[in-house]
Design goal:
mainly beta; 25-stranded mixed beta sheet; 20-stranded parallel beta sheet; signal; Curlin associated repeat protein; Curlin_rpt
């Protein structure tokens, strides 16, 4: 059985009517093409080609059947195209030129392809495809552009390129093996894969890449549940924001690259295991975490943070076990705060510059914290709550300060090393069977604080070793408990040691 229905109302349909586009210019254009083929046998379906040039354009095209092809070309002023295509092997192409543009494409079926290209000024494109092996390509040139792509199914792909300012593009997908590539040039651009409502973007093996160049851009990944996803956000310019929000899954790769000033990278409500997070910021006044603390929850995650510039800040927390965290800051007046809650985690934080602050917190067992600072007037703080933890603070420069607080048992390796002049180390140990080593090299160093609080070691069977090399060094403090030991070695002039044991 074969059923075919055609309805054509057109002032500008070049193909099928034998009219040239020049003969149809400067008119109020409107075209409606509806083709329907239903058959039980093999058939080659419909083909429609619409060309409209000049004035106010409107094209409505509906095709149902097999092996379909639709091409709409519209030229200047007011252009609108609505396409509804159902079947297999569909191909839809819309080319719109200057001024007012709107393209709405809705496709149901397999092996579908939709291409939308829009030129300057007011462009909009909305493409919804449901099926397998679908492909969407949206190209917008100018300002006030908007593109929304929704793919439901397997092996889907979407590419959106926008040039200009005030652009907006969304890649929304539900299914497996989906690809998304969003590139934006200009100012006030938004980004990709942001959920349009409260529902998440579901799917596995998705590959989303957002590239933005300009100012005040927002690149975002929101509401993704699945494994083996790859998210890349690259931003160049000032006042940009890149964030990953509400990600549930494992074996995901998240990479945010920002180059410019006053940028923010934010990671929140991220849960899963074996995830790889890499955030790189180059410029001044950049922030990881913003007013909220970036966080990830899970185990066996790798987190690599790199900041280059001045007045940059990072606030991050990890909830889980066996995570590996690396932070590298280069520049002056930077700060970093890292909190980790779990067991068997490794934290390595380093800064190169002056007036930098690094704070590390760990609650759990078998955690390892390392803080390295090169420069002057830096502050390093390590706070450990738990057992079998290791702390290593290394400062190279002048007028640096280190504060170490350990509460727990069997923390066998607590080290603080300072090279330079007029450095200070404060130490608070509460617990049993802890081992601490303090090394200071330089002039005018002292260990134990500037006031009467000095250093405090409370507990049983604690071991404290202090080595000072230089002039005008001071050791002061107290040990309280049974079976504690302290060893003080001072090399240089005008050294003083005061230790009280109770």
């Amino acid at each position: 059985m074969r059923t075919q229905t055609k309805s054509i109302i057109a002032l500008a349909i070049a193909a099928g009517l034998g009219m040239s586009s020049s003969a149809l210019a400067n008119t109020d254009n409107s075209a409606t093409v509806s083709q329907t083929i239903v058959t039980a046998g093999d058939v080659l379906g419909q083909e429609a080609f619409v060309t409209q040039t000049g004035d106010r354009h409107t094209t409505i095209l509906n095709q149902e059947g097999d092996e379909q092809t639709a091409t709409i070309v519209q030229d200047g002023y007011w252009a609108e195209a609505y396409i509804d295509s159902k079947g297999l092997g569909n191909n839809v192409e819309v080319d719109q030129a200057a001024d007012w543009h709107l393209a709405d494409i809705n496709i149901e079926g397999n092996d579908n392809e939709a291409l939308v290209e829009q030129a300057d000024f007011w462009n909009q494109a909305n493409v919804v495809i449901s099926g397998n092996d679908n492909f969407v390509d949206v190209m917008q040139d100018g300002s006030q552009n908007e593109a929304v792509v929704e793919l439901l199914g397997d092996t889907n792909s979407a590419i959106v390129i926008q040039e200009g300012s005030g652009n907006f593009s969304v890649f929304r997908v539900e299914g497996n093996d989906n690809d998304g590539d969003i590139t934006q040039y200009g100012d006030n651009n938004v980004g990709g894969m942001v959920s349009l409502d409260i529902t998440p973007n579901l799917g596995n093996n998705n590959d989303v890449e957002v590239y933005q160049e300009g100012n005040n851009n927002l690149g975002a990944i929101k509401g993704v549940a699945g494994d083996n996803n790859n998210f890349l956000v690259t931003q160049e310019g000032d006042s940009n924001t890149g964030f990953v929000y509400s990600l549930v899954g494992s074996d995901n790769e998240i990479e945010i690259n920002q180059e410019g000033n006053s940028n923010t990278a934010y990671l929140a409500l991220t849960t899963g295991d074996d995830n790889d997070v890499e955030i790189t910021q180059r410029g001044d006044n950049n922030t990881i975490g913003d007013t909220l603390v970036a966080d990830i929850q899970g185990r066996d995650n790798n987190i690599d943070l790199e900041l280059e510039g001045n007045n940059n800040g990072a606030e991050f927390q990890v909830l889980g076990n066996e995570n590996d965290i690396d932070l590298d800051q280069e520049g002056d007046t930077n700060f970093a705060t890292f909190g980790i809650y779990g067991d068997d985690n490794d934290i390595d934080m380093s800064s190169d510059g002056d007036n930098n602050e690094i704070l590390a917190f760990a609650a759990g067992d078998d955690n390892d914290i390392e803080v390295h600072q090169d420069g002057d007037t830096n502050f390093g703080y390590a706070d450990i709550l738990g057992s079998d933890n290791e702390v290593d603070i290394d400062q190279d420069g002048n007028e640096n300060e280190a504060l170490v607080t350990v509460i727990g048992f069997d923390n066998t390796d607590v080290e603080a090393t300072q090279n330079g002049d007029l450095n200070l180390i404060d130490l608070i140990i509460m617990g049993d069977e802890n081992s601490v080593m303090v090394t200071q090299t330089g002039d005018g160093n002292w260990f134990g604080g500037e006031d009467e609080s000095a250093f405090v070691v409370e507990g049983m069977d604690n071991s404290l070793m202090v080595a000072q090399n230089g002039k005008d060094n001071l050791v002061t403090g107290s040990q309280t408990g049974m079976g504690n030991s302290i060893s003080v070695t001072q090399t240089g002039d005008f050294n003083s040691a005061v230790v009280i044991q109770n």
